[in-house]
């Protein structure tokens, strides 16, 4: 479904990725863990073209994204990126809801303007999605009237309204108050159980263990270990994984 | 997009209207053309005042003066009527050259320098220069006593050259002929040297001032005509000779008390007659000035609103080019903004109006004012939008893109609505500033509110009352905008929506 091969990326000539590879199968839930700055988020953002990379290839359902060794992508690259974005939904750490639109408008805006979904149909979909994330009563609220957990659930509903085949979660619970983490995680868990292909970058080790088919450990722009949650959490092979886990799990 | 199209359409309509309005006041060449048109366009500065061209104290929307009478007499001989076109005195010659009117007649002295630029008719008046001092002045008795003294005169007038040639005189140059005498009476100047007709109207009736010595220097006032219009010059010369022979000219000068010994060299002795004194205008009820001032305010509103619309739209385009464009687009936008912000609006207007004709582009006053103000303010609006756009968190664009929006749609639907919210109070403030800056366009022959005020005030000397009324009119126009800005700001503070 998604194949990342030989990915290289530099920031101001400072290498981040020095040729990493990862295959994600359809319906798989992959959780990315690792210290801050290890490249988890950047990896996700490369997949849907929010970040460019200098070498390697990303293949999403036979749409190929080639290395883009320049500041601005060309027209063909933009076309490929757009196609990929329509297949992949993304949820951000900061929610990024549109503050000037109601919850309903946040969800219907892009389907009506990009997919040409009829207004009635879009509202119907949005209502169903809000029901699914348990926020029907907030349909006419504005983002600043919602709690962080509620905003994040709207953001998930908004991404789902585009009927993506894959969902990317970039630290979806990192800016939430602890009591709200559960409500967001349970929505993500439901999605995984329904068979959505999912990539999650997270610091939340408990949920990583619970939802992941595979866990990928990042460190300093490198994938140092890939394995089942059992293997990684109970019997990590790499030394750096052990250090990282012992530090996180102690807290 | 529809809103944008509406605004563009509006601007197009304004541009067309203004070009039509301007066209009406557009001169063409040749005597036949003028006759066909049915009126002779003559340029002069009503702010220059009595006795040349000035608003009738009894009915300020009507211009009177000996040159008004002369223009009417000339036009009558041509079988058409005369229409006066307002233009600042010191730019009458460039305005004539660029074709704003057929002739310029406003106490323009025939000098070799000016003869290099335009044709002059036969002289229609012999002027002399009169030195004026304060009543209690004892040191200055003639022009020979001026060394080291502060002496006022009119910018570009022959009197200025005379003062400069004496050497050692501290020459203060004014653009109006009332202000030097005001400053002299207030003690800011030691003396004023100006053409006798001016002194006769503005200094003689003033009890604080007196003439010093006899008039000096003789010269001619002539009607300025475009170089290519020699046919028109010949026709006007014939008419002037005829008016002189029939005594018509003499009658006009008698009416305005403009005879003096010097004129006698040309004309028969003239008897003393009464003339319309400035005292009259001091008694005229203040409401008689309202139609003029309101008309000026109307022009101010037309110019401000249309140029603000241009600034808002052009500013938006510039901001988008600068932020989202690639070089050379982004560089061009940045250069535009820096150049327009870094040079005075006045210079930009001068270049637009008097400079462009040199390369064959001649804009009429309304169009030049609209474009000049609009393009200048566009630079400021662009920076406001840019700040607004930069204030929108990066995550907003990323969220929109990740959902599959094309960048252009994301800018329009997600970034701009939020950016405009941030920029709006600043834009409203700029609109208020533009209202007041619109007074600068008087330098390119637009008679808007401030110019109307200075013309009326120069004639009536009622600087105070008329000034208050003018200020109130400006305030009445800008205060509603101020209220709107405050309300917007309050509303935006309360919520992000």
pLDDT averaged over residues of chain B: 82
The average pLDDT value of chain A, as a whole number, equals: 89
Identify the quaternary structure here: heterodimer
- Tally of strands of chain A: 10
Q: Strand order across the biggest sheet of chain B? A: 4-1-5-12-6
Instruction: Please report the number of helical segments of chain B.
Output: 20
Strand order across the largest sheet of chain A: 6-7-8-3-9-10
Please identify, by name, the CATH architecture of the largest domain in chain B: Orthogonal Bundle
Which structural class should the secondary elements of chain B be placed in?
A: alpha/beta
CATH superfamily of the largest domain in chain B: MetI-like
Give the distance, in angstroms, between the N- and C-terminal Cα atoms of chain A. 36 Å
Describe the structure.
The complex is a heterodimer of chains A (251) and B (497). Chain A has 251 residues and is of the alpha/beta class. Chain A is 40% helix and 25% strand. Chain A is built from nine helices and ten strands. In chain A, the strands form two sheets. In chain A, strands 6-7-8-3-9-10 form a six-stranded mixed sheet, with helices on both faces. The longest helix of chain A is centred in the last third of the chain and has 16 residues, at 178-193. Chain A is globular and about 55 Å long. Chain B has 497 residues and is α/β, with parallel strands linked by helices. Chain B has three domains: 28-124 and 222-282, D-Maltodextrin-Binding Protein, domain 2; 126-219, Periplasmic binding protein-like II (D-Maltodextrin-Binding Protein, domain 2, 3-Layer(aba) Sandwich); 287-496, MetI-like fold. Chain B has helices at 2-24, 31-37, 66-78, 92-97, 112-115, 158-166, 179-185, 196-202, 230-246, 248-255, 261-264, 279-283, 290-324, 329-342, 345-355, 365-391, 394-402, 407-437, 449-460, 463-494, and strands spanning 39-44, 54-56, 59-64, 81-86, 103-104, 119-120, 125-134, 150-154, 170-174, 191-195, 209-221, 224-225. In chain B, the strands form three sheets. In chain B, strands 4-1-5-12-6 form a five-stranded mixed sheet. A five-stranded mixed sheet of chain B has the order 9-8-10-7-11, sandwiched between helices. Chain B has a two-stranded antiparallel sheet with strand order 2-3. In chain B, a hairpin with a 2-residue loop joins strand 2 (54-56) and strand 3. In chain B, helix 13 runs antiparallel to helix 18 (407-437). The longest helix of chain B is centred in the middle third of the chain and has 35 residues, at 290-324. In chain B, 43% of the residues are buried. The A-B interface holds A 48-50, 72, 82, 85-86, 88-90, 92, 94, 96-100, 109-110, 113-114, 142-144, 155, 158-159, 162 and B 326, 393, 395-396, 398-406, 409, 413-414, 417-418, 421, 495-497.
């Amino acid at each position: 479904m998604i194949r990342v091969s030989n990915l290289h990326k530099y920031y101001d000539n400072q290498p981040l990725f020095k040729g990493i590879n990862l295959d994600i199968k359809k319906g798989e839930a992959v959780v990315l863990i690792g210290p801050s700055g290890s490249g988890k988020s950047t990896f996700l953002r490369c997949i849907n073209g929010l970040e460019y990379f200098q070498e390697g290839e990303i293949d999403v359902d036979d749409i190929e994204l080639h290395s883009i060794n320049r500041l601005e992508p060309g027209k063909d690259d933009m076309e490929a990126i757009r196609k990929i974005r329509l297949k992949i939904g993304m949820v951000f750490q900061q929610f990024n809801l549109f503050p000037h639109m109601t919850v309903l408008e946040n969800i219907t805006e892009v389907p009506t303007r990009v997919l040409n979904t009829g207004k009635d149909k879009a509202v119907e979909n949005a209502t169903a999605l809000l029901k699914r994330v348990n926020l029907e009563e907030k349909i006419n609220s504005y983002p600043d009237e919602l709690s962080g957990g509620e905003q994040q659930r709207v953001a998930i509903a908004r991404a789902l309204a585009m009927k993506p085949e894959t969902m990317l979660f970039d630290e979806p619970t990192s800016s939430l108050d602890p009591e709200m983490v559960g409500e967001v995680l349970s929505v993500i868990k439901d999605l995984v159980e329904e068979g959505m292909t999912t990539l999650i970058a997270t610091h939340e080790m408990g949920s990583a263990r619970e939802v992941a088919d595979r866990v990928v450990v990042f460190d300093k722009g490198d994938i140092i270990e890939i394995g089942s949650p059992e293997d990684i959490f109970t019997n990590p092979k790499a030394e750096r994984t052990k250090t990282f886990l012992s530090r996180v799990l102690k807290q | 997009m529809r809103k944008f199209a509406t605004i563009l359409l509006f601007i197009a309509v304004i541009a067309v209207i203004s070009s039509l309005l301007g066209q009406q006041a557009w001169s063409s060449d040749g005597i036949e053309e003028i006759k066909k048109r049915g009126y002779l366009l003559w340029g002069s500065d009503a702010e220059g005042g009595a006795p040349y061209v000035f608003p009738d104290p009894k009915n300020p929307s009507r211009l009177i003066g000996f040159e008004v009478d002369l223009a009417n007499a000339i036009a009558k001989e041509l079988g058409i009527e005369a229409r006066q076109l307002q233009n600042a005195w010191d730019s009458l010659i460039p305005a004539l050259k660029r074709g704003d009117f057929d002739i310029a007649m406003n106490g323009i002295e025939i000098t070799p320098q000016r003869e290099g630029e335009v044709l002059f008719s036969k002289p229609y008046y012999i002027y002399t220069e009169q030195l004026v001092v304060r009543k209690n002045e004892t040191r200055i008795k003639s022009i020979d006593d001026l060394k080291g003294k502060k002496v006022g005169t009119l910018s570009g007038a022959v009197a200025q050259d005379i003062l400069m040639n004496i050497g050692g005189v501290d020459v203060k140059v004014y653009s109006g002929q009332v202000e030097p005498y005001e400053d002299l009476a207030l003690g800011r100047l030691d003396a004023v040297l100006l053409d006798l007709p001016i002194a006769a109207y503005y200094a003689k009736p003033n009890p604080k001032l007196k003439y010093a010595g006899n008039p000096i220097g003789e010269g001619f006032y002539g009607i300025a005509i475009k170089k290519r219009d020699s046919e028109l010059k010949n026709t006007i010369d014939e008419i002037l000779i005829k008016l002189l022979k029939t005594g018509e000219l003499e009658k006009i000068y008698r009416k305005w008390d403009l005879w003096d010994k010097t004129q006698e060299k040309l004309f028969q002795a003239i008897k003393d007659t009464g003339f319309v004194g400035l005292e009259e205008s001091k008694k005229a009820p203040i409401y008689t000035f309202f139609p003029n001032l309101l008309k000026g305010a109307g022009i101010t509103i037309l110019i401000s609103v249309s140029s603000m619309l241009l600034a808002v739209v052009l500013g938006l385009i510039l901001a988008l080019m600068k932020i989202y464009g690639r070089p050379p687009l982004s560089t061009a936008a940045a250069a535009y903004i820096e150049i327009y912000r870094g040079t005075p609006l006045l210079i930009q207007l001068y270049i637009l109006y008097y400079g462009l004709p040199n390369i064959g582009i001649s804009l009429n006053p309304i169009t030049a004012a609209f474009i000049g103000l609009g393009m200048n303010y566009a630079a400021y609006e662009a920076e406001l939008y840019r700040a607004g756009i930069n204030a929108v968190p990066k995550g907003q664009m990323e969220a929109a893109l990740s959902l599959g929006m094309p960048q252009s749609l994301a800018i329009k639907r997600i970034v701009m609505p939020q950016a405009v919210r941030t920029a709006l109070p600043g834009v409203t403030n700029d609109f208020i500033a533009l209202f007041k800056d619109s007074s600068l366009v008087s330098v390119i022959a637009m008679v808007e509110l401030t110019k109307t005020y200075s013309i009326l005030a120069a004639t009536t000397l009622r600087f105070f009352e008329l000034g208050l009324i003018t200020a109130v009119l400006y305030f009445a126009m800008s205060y509603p905008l101020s209220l709107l800005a405050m309300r917007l700001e309050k509303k935006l503070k309360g919520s992000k929506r």
